[in-house]
């Protein structure tokens, strides 16, 4: 389609004998052109379309594929069905549906065996204006489950939910669980929840780095990497001597992420680790710290390490010093 003459570039540039079209004139002309095209489309629209104006948005697709807001009856029915995909779709399409009667049907899904179902249930519940965060309501009951339930699985799921609720009271509850719960799976879930809440629980994550269970330490390391204010590189450095290779590797990655000079000594130790993945992570982190003290170790690894990936990573780190 030819551009209308009012947009002609020579005229807009002020060609001899022509009046220059100002900025607002161009905008006005574009608006008129768009209005003309829209009105032309309206004139040919099928007014008998059974789904009305949605046809103009979605085009010629089957009506059953058009997104619709979930009804309250649908929300309650799907919650009882146990189908993860149906639950996910229905709750997502019911994000803004205020249905106090639906809350008792959704709350049990916080303790479903499927993690995606638990996640979408907490996501939907935290968007409620009424019925969730009041005294004695869902959120308070979730905290009480984490504190008092005799089943460690339910306590673990409660910690997961508190992380997804993104509310401040969950910070203290998860911090206490991280320090005191006897079950390591619950402590690990509490550490993960603190990362989701972007809070170290007044030092609870640092203490968790010294937990006896590697699952808790790994969860604490990963959450520490997500929290804006976490800076305790000294505590992370102590993990250079941990007995679990995954813990050592994740500690090396976190030290690189923190860019903390006090982490160099620990990384130099990890660069001599018997595990190649740990050495690889340590080389990458040393390159991120740009500390010249690492040059000798990196040069040796670049020449003599038995693992090709470690040698390559050491060469890259040397270029970053």
Question: How would you explain this protein's 3D organization?
Answer:
The protein has helices at 9-12, 23-44, 54-58, 72-79, 84-93, 103-106, 115-125, 138-148, 152-165, 169-180, 184-196, 204-208, 214-226, 233-237, 245-258, 264-270, 276-289, 295-304, 308-320. The chain has 321 residues and is mainly alpha-helical. Among the domains are: 1-46; 238-321, Leucine-rich Repeat Variant (Alpha Horseshoe), CATH 1.25.10. Helix 4 (72-79) runs antiparallel to helix 5, helix 10 packs antiparallel against helix 11 (184-196) and helix 17 runs parallel beside helix 19.
Key phrases:
single chain; mainly alpha; Leucine-rich Repeat Variant; disordered N terminus
Which helices and strands appear, and what pairs or packs with what?
Blueprint: H1 9-12, H2 23-44, H3 54-58, H4 72-79, H5 84-93, H6 103-106, H7 115-125, H8 138-148, H9 152-165, H10 169-180, H11 184-196, H12 204-208, H13 214-226, H14 233-237, H15 245-258, H16 264-270, H17 276-289, H18 295-304, H19 308-320
Helix pairs in contact: 4-5, 5-7, 7-9, 8-9, 9-10, 9-11, 10-11, 11-13, 13-15, 15-16, 15-17, 16-17, 17-19, 18-19
């Amino acid at each position: 389609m030819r551009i209308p003459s009012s947009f002609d570039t020579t005229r807009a540039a002020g060609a001899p004998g022509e009046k220059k079209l100002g900025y607002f004139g161009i905008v006005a002309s574009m608006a008129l052109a768009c209005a003309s095209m829209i009105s032309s489309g309206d004139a040919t629209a099928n007014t008998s379309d059974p789904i009305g104006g949605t046809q103009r948005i979605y085009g010629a697709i089957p009506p059953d594929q058009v997104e619709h807001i979930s009804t309250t009856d649908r929300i309650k029915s799907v919650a009882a069905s146990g189908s993860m995909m149906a639950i996910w779709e229905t709750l997502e399409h019911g994000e803004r549906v205020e249905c106090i009667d639906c809350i008792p049907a959704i709350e049990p899904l916080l303790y479903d065996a499927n993690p995606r179902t638990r996640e979408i249930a907490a996501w939907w519940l935290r968007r409620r204006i009424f019925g969730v965060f009041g005294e004695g309501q869902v959120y308070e009951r979730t905290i009480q489950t984490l504190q008092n339930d005799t089943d460690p699985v339910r306590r673990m799921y409660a910690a997961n939910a508190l992380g997804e609720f993104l509310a401040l009271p969950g910070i203290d509850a998860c911090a206490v669980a991280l320090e005191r719960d006897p079950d390591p799976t619950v402590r690990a879930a509490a550490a993960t929840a603190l990362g989701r809440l972007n809070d170290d629980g007044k030092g609870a994550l640092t203490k968790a780095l010294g937990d006896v269970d590697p699952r808790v330490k790994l969860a604490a390391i990963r959450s520490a990497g997500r929290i804006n204010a976490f800076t305790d590189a000294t505590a992370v450095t102590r993990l250079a001597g941990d007995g679990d290779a995954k813990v050592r590797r994740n500690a090396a990655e976190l030290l690189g992420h923190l860019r903390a000079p006090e982490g160099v000594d620990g990384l130099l130790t990890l660069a001599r680790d018997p595990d190649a993945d740990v050495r690889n992570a340590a080389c990458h982190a040393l390159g991120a710290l740009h500390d010249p003290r690492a040059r000798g170790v990196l040069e040796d690894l670049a020449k003599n390490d038995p693992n090709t990936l470690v040698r390559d990573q050491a060469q890259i780190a040397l270029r970053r010093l």
